[in-house]
């Protein structure tokens, strides 16, 4: 028989016993993850690794804009584990790395390294709805190694994809929002830490990658580097840099079979994404230019360099083509002029930074069966497509209509074998679907948070491709318009396919005339000037509105019902002969 005390227990007795047990548990957990004092970041030591062989970490990306925090990782699908290493060039009293649904500091799954001024500690933790940090009762992050090197301090640990802990983030395919922070002061206990009171940031990463080995490259493969000529990155937040590159004269037709980024060391946190375009073969010459893509000095002929050869974004690895297809490079049907476009994101306005980043193309003269191509789906880069402020989930959809595919695709259709999704900071999800006969028949690609799992999708003549992007602007007080700036928005899917067609861009936006009717209606409803719509820019008109749930709902309804303007463009930047305005929509 269990012993049951015969004296009544008061509420304060129960509370005291509970707190005693909880405190004991916390001490045990902290002690089990305590790092040797010699391994303290401030003392420059290291602990012996618990692995018999070094852990290979093939994936890398910067966490902060300065590049002081670097993340490397690897994946074990048999063990369902993720191995992560954080490297800090200027470690003080600890760091925080975490995951949350949308990059929030609240209700986040955390791993924390901290010190109390004497000893260092490591533990699995979580933040509450106010950002206060607590040690998790279930410790799922396992410390593997700490090291102090001349390059800085590194912390290696691992965690299962799924832990069955309700406070832990489930690591799955798609974009993971990583939050990071540094501790400038020692803390006596983890309960003193509040994420809102330290320097933090957010980075997005595709942590899980396809578990398939890359195809082998042909023996006669050669490389070609298309890079900026050692420029000085402008001291502004957003820069698109254009550089014209010339192939060797009379280069025979080759196939690009793989490409990868070449980022100048130290600039990994500033080089946001890069693209290589081929100019129109109809142009016999293209002026040599290297400068801002927005400059008035940029030659107009660069606008005819729109055929995509390669597209890379921060965190992406090498891109391989299937063994029976390659992207044409050189030959009589191609241009020998290429345009490199580099997007620099420099929010700290770092000055004097040199850069010669670019893309390395692997090509072969042993031609494969099919010529591959890249097609751009989604929304046209225009401010007429905007997201109201303070929206939790606002959807915008770009159309590649049946009239465009009927005109531009071959009778046998095409095979999509890969896809690269892209939005800016407000993007929360992207989904491209194939619609046939008014019904969704295949998901081309979907990333609910953002997936790296590609499958073959085969659009045919008359099919519709819908690309739907979801945005969150709860932290913004002004509308977010479409455009190239990092605080503006995009909705893009670069689909890789074969056999190649002349269809380069299949995107849409709302008919601007109907947007002006929206401005007129809302201004009249809000008692404003109804005659100023045509005189101000679209961006200014959006900013001048008083935003509430009504104006946002009406805009959403407009985007879902109004006629659209189609951009059904050839690689020469010319339009296919289809109707400019399509008023038929696919309802799913």
What is the fold's blueprint, element by element?
Elements: H1 11-32, E1 34-35, E2 59-62, E3 69-76, E4 81-88, E5 94-100, E6 109-115, E7 120-127, E8 133-135, E9 142-149, E10 152-160, E11 175-182, E12 199-206, E13 222-227, E14 231-232, E15 238-246, E16 254-262, E17 271-278, E18 290-292, E19 307-313, E20 319-320, E21 325-329, E22 337-345, E23 354-355, E24 358-364, E25 370-371, E26 373-379, E27 386-387, E28 394-400, H2 402-408, E29 415-422, E30 427-436, E31 439-447, E32 464-471, E33 480-481, E34 492-498, E35 503-510, H3 512-525, H4 538-544, H5 549-561, E36 564-570, E37 581-582
Description:
By secondary structure, this protein is mainly beta. Helices cover 11% and strands 39% of the residues. The strands form eight sheets. Strands 1, 5, 6, 7, 8, 11 and 12 form a seven-stranded antiparallel beta sheet that branches. Strands 13, 16, 20, 21, 24 and 25 form a six-stranded mixed beta sheet that branches. A six-stranded mixed beta sheet has the order 29-34-26-35-36-37. α3 packs antiparallel against α5. The N and C termini lie far apart (65 Å). 39% of the residues are buried. Mean pLDDT is 84; it is low at 1-9, 11-52 and 449-455. The chain crosses the membrane at residues 16-35. Its cofactor is Cu(2+). This is Dopamine beta-hydroxylase.
């Amino acid at each position: 028989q269990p012993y049951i005390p015969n004296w009544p227990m008061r509420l304060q007795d129960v509370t005291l016993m509970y707190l005693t047990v909880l405190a004991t548990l916390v001490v045990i957990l902290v002690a089990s993850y305590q790092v040797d004092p010699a391994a303290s970041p401030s003392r420059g030591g290291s602990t012996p690794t618990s692995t018999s062989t070094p852990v290979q970490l093939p994936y890398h990306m910067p966490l902060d804009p300065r590049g002081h925090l670097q993340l490397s990782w690897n994946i074990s699908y048999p063990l369902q584990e993720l191995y992560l290493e954080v490297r800090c060039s200027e470690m003080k009293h600890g760091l925080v790395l975490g995951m949350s649904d949308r990059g929030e500091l609240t209700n986040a799954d955390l791993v924390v390294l901290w010190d109390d001024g004497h000893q260092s500690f490591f533990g699995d933790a979580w933040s509450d709805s106010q950002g206060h940090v607590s040690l998790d009762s279930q410790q799922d992050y396992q410390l593997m190694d700490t090291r102090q090197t001349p390059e800085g301090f590194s912390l290696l640990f691992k965690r299962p994809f799924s832990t069955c802990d309700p406070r832990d983030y489930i690591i799955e395919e798609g974009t993971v929002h990583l939050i990071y922070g540094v501790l400038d002061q020692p803390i006596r206990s983890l309960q003193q830490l509040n994420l809102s009171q330290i320097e933090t940031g957010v980075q997005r990463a595709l942590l899980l990658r396809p578990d398939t080995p890359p195809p082998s490259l042909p023996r006669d493969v050669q490389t070609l580097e298309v890079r900026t000529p050692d420029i000085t990155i402008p001291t502004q937040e957003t820069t698109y840099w254009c550089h014209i590159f010339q192939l060797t004269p009379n280069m025979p037709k080759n196939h690009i079979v793989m490409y990868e980024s070449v980022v100048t060391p130290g600039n990994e946190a500033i080089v946001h994404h890069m693209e290589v375009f081929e100019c129109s073969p109809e142009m016999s010459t293209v002026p040599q230019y290297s400068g801002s893509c927005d400059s008035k000095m940029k030659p107009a002929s660069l606008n005819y360099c729109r055929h995509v050869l390669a597209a890379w974004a921060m965190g992406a690895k090498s891109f391989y083509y299937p063994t029976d297809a390659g992207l044409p490079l050189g030959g009589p049907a191609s241009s020998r002029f290429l345009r490199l476009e580099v997007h620099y994101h420099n929010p700290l306005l770092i000055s004097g930074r040199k850069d010669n980043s670019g893309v390395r193309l692997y090509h072969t003269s042993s031609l494969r069966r099919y010529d591959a191509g890249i097609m751009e789906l989604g929304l046209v880069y225009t401010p007429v497509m905007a997201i109201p402020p303070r929206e939790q989930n606002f959807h915008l959809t770009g159309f590649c209509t049946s009239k465009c595919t009927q005109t531009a695709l071959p009778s046998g259709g095409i095979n999509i074998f890969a896809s690269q999704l892209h939005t800016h900071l407000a993007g929360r999800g992207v989904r491209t679907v194939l619609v046939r006969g008014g019904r969704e028949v295949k998901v081309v690609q979907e990333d609910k948070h953002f997936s790296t799992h590609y499958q073959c999708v085969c659009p045919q003549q008359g099919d519709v491709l819908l690309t739907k992007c979801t945005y969150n602007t709860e932290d913004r007080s002004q509308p977010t318009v479409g455009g190239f700036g990092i605080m503006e928005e995009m909705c893009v899917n670069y689909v890789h396919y074969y056999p190649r067609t002349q269809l380069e861009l299949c995107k849409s936006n709302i008919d601007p005339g109907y947007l002006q009717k929206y401005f007129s209606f809302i201004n009249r409803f809000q008692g404003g000037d109804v005659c100023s719509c045509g005189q101000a820019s679209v961006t200014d008109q959006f900013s001048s509105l008083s935003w509430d749930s009504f104006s946002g709902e009406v805009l959403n309804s407009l985007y879902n019902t109004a006629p659209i303007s189609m951009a059904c463009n050839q690689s020469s930047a010319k339009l296919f002969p289809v109707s400019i305005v399509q008023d038929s929509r696919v309802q799913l």
